[in-house]
């Protein structure tokens, strides 16, 4: 039987439910283990004048107190640019910037000692917002541009033009397991680090550089994470390095687990954006020219801000053909924790910008925004080239629009909403369909590679090791399914080992929705090599020269746990027996597989090329109900259609689609990051930061998958689904914007993102007042 295509349960599902799954802080402390607490800077920007740690060093239970002067190797690090510090040496970048590490016998002792550290600083003027950074010219790096066509000519000849700004808020990752790491010193200066990270190889490199030891002295192990969402792609490195530093100096096991408040306060978020846009269009809503200038809030250091900005530029077209377009981007440096990867990785910000522009066009022309979207949608065979030059192959977007419009009964519901809003004095309803065309591949070409180690044991069981990290998304389950099918054995006979840098070297992060694509393909390569070697030998065992059947490897079939020659199917042996026969004949039963993504060649200097192997597409129709007098908003119905190709695991795909959409819905509605004038995050706990709960899930939530038999570019014909559904949450925001348009017949509602209850109420109030003034002016004239 084939396991690919079956809805096999997540391999950790039972463990998660019963509590048997092991996370970093579930590992019992060793006899002499130390616990770390961090002392952060008391201001957001300034110079560190002095640090007095004597009282803390002498406090009961304290084993070690470290400052930047105690770091033996590199004091600066970073995934792209080495502009981050493990501990402050001179300049303070943000409030809570780590200054001192305290290691103690217990967490309580370390927390008590924190209060004894004295930090003297010289305050400098901080910058927190994009507007202030632009005014001060405070940027990270230069401008990025993607351009196509003749934008100036399009604007000069267009019947209509509009322009405006859009503020897009950030988002807290809110993974269930906070940043955590545990380090165990070994012989000869070697060290093992257990890290809750999406990128073990990067943690390995940073730990080695900070300790000033070779990479091969550091082994990083990641069994699983309690969520990541991008927040553990780069920012797990610092906690891991802190534990490794203490373990290296003391020779004792060490762990750090940030509490929820500290984690939220000092880690980076999704990048807030501010977009300045202009659009030229005709009376049908066809976009003739478009300009979007993106400014992102990168926080205090570079981190992955360039890559995030780049993906925002690459997704500013979203589902729409733009013959004349110019997208630019700058990263603003501010005194907030360095913003970082987040599910969607800049794509959501780019898509939100153009979807908002479409709502503006529709409002100006007084037509349904869906008509604007369908008219501008990428075509099949024509009008199918992205602004950066890539041809949109196997484009199912027109079919998705047409199918979903019909199945959700869009037109009938639009008429009902028109009637409701004309008659209801207490509520407004809104309806909107948005699409997603999400590019699958890392935009940094080097990262599009993976290796996998497959070992077959004498009892017929198989262990797979890859660079993929499991954070709840089910990558290990999918890889088990793939390997079971490749070797023709039972799924239960395959397990996936904990991700570890001593088994898989120089791996890419589990990100960009490419975990299964890359690592699954590498595992397929390893299995194919093992299978061919086995078949070469087994052909001599299973053939019958006396009957005129010479050994022929191509006739050997491995399926359902058995091996046989297709010319004599009655002569079968078990896979276990086949393995033993191969072992006796000294046939290698282990193999390292390798995979590189073909055809990705984007030139970021020219803004042209093919940054993606393929696209995952879909659309969602969201309907909202807004209280006119309180701003309370409910998502009453969602209809969603995704093209995921041929699913490897349909149930897990469904879980990713639903979960991604809800997380995107949270970003555009309730999840608001609030800071005070000192740069302190006020929304740093579940009491003040509102992620969607079960009560926020739409009462009617229809999710369907498009049948696409032509998907062939990715492994097993499947399409990545980790990030794309999140971008469909934008349909909830555009539905809110649509609802408010009924109060604003003269212009689009100036709604920013997220559309919290407060912002909805204030926007409605402003629209009512504006309408009253407008009507009064008309009356006077």
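Sequence proposed for the structure above (781 residues):
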């Amino acid at each position: 039987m084939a396991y690919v295509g079956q809805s096999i349960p997540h391999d950790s599902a039972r463990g998660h439910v019963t509590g048997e799954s092991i996370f970093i802080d579930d590992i019992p402390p060793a006899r002499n283990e130390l616990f770390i607490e961090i002392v952060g800077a008391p201001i957001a920007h300034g110079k560190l004048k002095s640090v007095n740690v004597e009282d803390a060093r002498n406090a009961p239970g304290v084993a070690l107190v470290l400052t930047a002067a105690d770091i033996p190797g590199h004091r600066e690090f970073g995934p792209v640019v080495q502009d981050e510090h493990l501990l402050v040496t001179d300049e303070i970048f943000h409030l809570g910037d780590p200054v001192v590490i305290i290691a103690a016998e217990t967490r309580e002792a370390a927390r008590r000692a924190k209060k004894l550290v004295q930090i003297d600083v010289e305050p400098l003027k901080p910058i927190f917002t994009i507007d202030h950074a632009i005014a001060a010219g405070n940027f990270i790096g230069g401008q990025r541009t993607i351009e196509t066509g003749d934008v100036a000519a399009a604007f000069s000849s267009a019947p209509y033009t509009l322009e405006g700004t859009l503020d897009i808020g950030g988002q807290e990752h809110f993974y269930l397991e906070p940043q955590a790491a545990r380090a165990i010193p070994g012989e000869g200066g070697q060290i093992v680090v257990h890290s809750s990270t999406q990128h073990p190889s990067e943690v390995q490199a940073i730990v080695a550089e900070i300790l000033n030891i070779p990479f091969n002295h550091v082994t990083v192990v990641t069994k699983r994470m309690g969520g990541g969402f991008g927040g553990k792609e780069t920012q797990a490195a610092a906690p891991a390095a802190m534990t490794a530093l203490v373990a290296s100096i003391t020779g004792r096991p060490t762990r750090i687990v940030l509490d929820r408040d500290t984690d939220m306060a000092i880690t980076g978020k999704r990048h807030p954006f501010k977009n300045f846009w202009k659009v030229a269009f005709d009376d049908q809503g066809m976009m003739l020219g478009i300009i979007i200038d993106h400014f992102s809030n990168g926080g205090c250091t570079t981190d992955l801000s360039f890559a995030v900005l780049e993906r925002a530029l690459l997704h500013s077209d979203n589902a729409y053909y733009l013959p004349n377009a110019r997208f630019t981007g700058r990263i603003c440096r501010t005194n907030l924790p360095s913003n970082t990867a987040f599910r969607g990785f800049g794509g959501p910000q780019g898509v939100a910008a153009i979807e908002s522009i479409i709502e503006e066009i529709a409002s100006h022309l007084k037509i349904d925004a869906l008509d604007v979207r369908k008219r501008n949608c990428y075509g099949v065979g024509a009008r199918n080239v992205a602004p950066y030059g890539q041809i949109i192959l196997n484009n199912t977007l027109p079919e998705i629009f047409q199918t979903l419009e019909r199945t959700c009964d869009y037109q009938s519901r639009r008429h009902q909403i028109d009637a409701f809003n004309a008659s209801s004095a207490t509520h407004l309803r809104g309806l909107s369909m948005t699409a997603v065309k999400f590019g699958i591949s890392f935009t940094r070409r080097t990262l599009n590679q993976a290796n996998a180690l497959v070992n077959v044991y004498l009892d017929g069981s198989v262990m797979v090791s890859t660079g993929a990290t499991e954070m709840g998304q089910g990558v290990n389950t999918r890889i088990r399914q793939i390997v079971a099918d490749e070797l023709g054995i039972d799924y239960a006979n395959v397990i996936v080992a904990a991700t570890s840098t001593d088994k898989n070297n120089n791996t890419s992060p589990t990100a960009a929705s490419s975990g299964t694509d890359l690592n699954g393909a590498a595992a397929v390569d390893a299995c194919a090599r093992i299978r061919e070697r086995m078949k070469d030998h087994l052909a001599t065992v299973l053939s019958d020269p006396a009957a005129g059947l010479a050994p022929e490897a191509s006739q050997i079939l491995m399926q359902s746990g058995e091996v046989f020659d297709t010319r004599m199917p009655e002569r079968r042996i078990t896979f276990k027996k086949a393995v033993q026969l191969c072992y006796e004949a000294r046939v290698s039963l282990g193999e390292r597989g390798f995979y590189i993504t073909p055809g990705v060649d984007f030139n970021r200097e020219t803004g042209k090329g093919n940054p993606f192997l393929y696209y995952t597409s879909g659309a969602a129709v969201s309907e909202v109900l807004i209280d006119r007098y309180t701003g309370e908003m409910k998502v009453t119905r969602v209809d969603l259609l995704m093209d995921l190709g041929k699913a490897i695991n349909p149930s897990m795909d469904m879980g990713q689609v639903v979960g991604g959409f809800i997380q995107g819905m949270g970003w555009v509605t309730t999840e608001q990051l609030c800071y005070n004038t000192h740069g302190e995050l006020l929304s740093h706990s579940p009491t003040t930061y509102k992620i969607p709960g079960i009560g926020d899930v739409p009462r009617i939530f229809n999710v369907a998958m498009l049948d696409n038999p032509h998907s062939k570019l990715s492994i097993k014909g499947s399409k990545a689904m980790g990030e794309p559904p999140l971008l469909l949450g934008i349909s909830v925001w555009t539905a809110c914007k649509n609802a408010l348009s009924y109060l604003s017949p003269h212009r689009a509602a100036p709604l920013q993102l997220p559309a919290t209850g407060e912002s909805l109420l204030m926007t409605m109030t402003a629209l009512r007042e504006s309408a009253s003034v407008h009507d009064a002016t008309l009356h006077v004239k």
